Amino acid sequence: MKEEIRKSLEQAIKELQSSRDWPDFDLSEINVERPKGEAFGDYTTNIAMVLAKSVGKNPLDIADQIVELINGQKNESLEKIEIVKPGYINFYLSEKYFQELIQAVIDKQADFGSGEKKKEKIMVEYSQPNTLKEFHIGHLRNVFIGSSLVNVLRKAGYDVTAANYIGDTGTHIAKCLWGILKFHPDVDWDKVENKTEFLGTIYSEAVQKIESDPKLENEFRETQKKLAEKEPELMKLWEKTRQWSLDDFSKIYDRLGTKFDVYFYESEEEESGKKMVESLIEKGIARESEGAVIADLEKYDLGVLVLQRNDGSVLYGLKDIPLAIKKFDQYKIDKSIVVVDIRQSLYFRQLVKILEIYGINKSTEHIGYEFVMLKGGESMSSRKGNVIPGRKLLDLIISEVGKKFPETVEAEKIGLAAARFFMLKYGAATKIEFDIDEAVKLEGATGPYVQYAQVRIRSIMRIAEEFFSDNQKNSADLTLLTHEKELSLIRELDRFGELIDEVSKTYEVSRFPYYAIRLADKFHSFYNDCQVLDPKNPELSKARLKLVEAVRIVLGETLRIINVEAPERM
Predict the structure, then answer these.
(1) Backbone phi, psi, residue 184, to 5°
(2) Would the pTM count as exceeding 0.70?
């Protein structure tokens, strides 16, 4: 409806330009928004005030002329149009529009709110854990953002490839392997219950040993050199420990319900990067400096990016360049979106500039996210050994859910919803102190609160089967839905399609938890004031059941986009 109103405004302004000899106006400046409150209508625009500057007339007079022309278009979806000082035009949708919307939701089911199929192909790369390190709570936030973004872009009609880029090479790998050989050569791995957690501990130990005794640096460097030279015995250890990590990641993704279409590995891109060094130098993108290879981006105010150290070791840039080329050439994508730690913002600007100089002008966008820590805790660091494993956080949440909901048999679903909601309701650039007690509450902006709305809806629908057959429910008279709480709830349903379109452009997936909360709020308010199943008024009951069914569909789709399942009972 928003676009329809915008087109009506555009048509009216064109007519006024031709009949009143108004100057040319950039029609893209027509802005239609949702007002701050329902008392101001369903949509509003300040276009009359914008036009006043170029036309040289009072905004109220301009608004009056625009409204007169739009009223002449006789749009049945509009109940009325009001002009408010100093020149706002407020649009009120008709009851008929809202009533027809309910049937549209039910007819389209899960397709409601979906955008038209688009030609643009997008790859979203997210998660990016490092082998031989713990999958920590920061990785959980990454997965929650990335998987939600994949879902909303697909809902908006884009062809989306979900990608994961595993860090299975680099300094941290060499340090962990050195730590195993130096301090744990005789460990019986068969007796180590959580191998990835132990590997993370070894890595932290290795870092701390080297920092406390610099003489050990040479020993570590020797191991790093052997790894780069693919020394057979060291490679066997690398392959074995790498697989332990990959297996552990798979278990975590299964638990989170996360699926990837393609996996990339740093070890593979490192080899490709080494082969590119000469061509990068020839193209003037890189140059040698004191034995290292660098990309000097000072003239772009982007500093210097080291691609390869003077010992031959490859850094991120020299891996990400061939990976980007592979994405665009092999997967034929139009845009690459990468969800990664906000501290990498400068690096990604450097990478995008290098790709641009190289000749790749397709879009690469970075979505940065901030730290996550437990409430009252310190910032995490693998080097310090104080990372909070993702599985540990989930287990703690689910344990708390068991206390809050002792009757439930679906604590896992409730716990995962609590974790997702808590992390997603904050903008990606906001630091999070994860509060488990707050996350599992049944009231407020929480996952369990929204799940409870869906559980209540399912309960209503089960009870309704005893009152009405499917044919009876289908014959409902939706014109009976005129109560203010009914219309307020339908208005919220109407926002869903716009939300999909807007988030597919802004990537602000944090808006979905809040939309789910508002929809749940309005449903609970409707339920408290409007008796759904009233034996004395079966016709109104049938109409309200249709509304409840529409809420079930939209709320279910909202939860699906952020990968939340509602339990049958709580």
Answers:
(1) -140, 45
(2) yes
Nearest to 49 by CA among 74, 75, 30: 30
Give the class (CATH, top level) of 2-93. alpha beta
How far apart are the C-alpha atoms of 318 and 171, rounded to whole Å? 15
Q: Are 211 and 384 in contact (CB under 8 A)?
A: no
Nearest Cα to Cα of residue 177 among 137, 228, 250: 228
CATH number assigned to the domain with residue range 400-427+436-561, chosen from the 4 options 1.10.3660.10, 1.10.730.10, 3.90.280.10, 3.40.50.970: 1.10.730.10
Domain regions of the chain by residue span: 2-93, 126-267+318-374, 400-427+436-561
Question: Contact at 8 Å (CB) between 498 and 2?
Answer: yes
The answer to whether the bond into 567 is cis (omega within 30° of 0) is no
Q: What is the pLDDT along the chain (570 residues), one digit of tens a residue?
A: 898 999 999 999 888 888 777 777 777 778 899 998 888 899 999 999 988 888 888 999 999 999 999 998 888 899 999 999 999 999 999 999 999 999 999 999 999 999 999 999 999 999 999 999 989 999 999 999 999 999 999 999 999 999 999 999 999 999 999 999 999 999 999 999 999 999 989 999 999 999 999 899 999 999 999 998 999 999 999 999 999 999 999 999 999 999 999 999 999 999 999 999 999 999 999 999 999 999 999 999 999 999 999 988 899 999 999 999 999 999 999 999 999 999 999 999 999 999 999 999 899 999 999 989 888 665 545 454 457 889 999 999 999 999 998 988 899 999 999 999 999 999 999 999 999 999 999 988 999 999 999 999 999 999 998 877 766 667 889 999 999 999 999 999 999 999 999 999 999 999 999 999 999 999 999 999 999 998 899 999 999 999 999 999 999 999 999 999 988 887
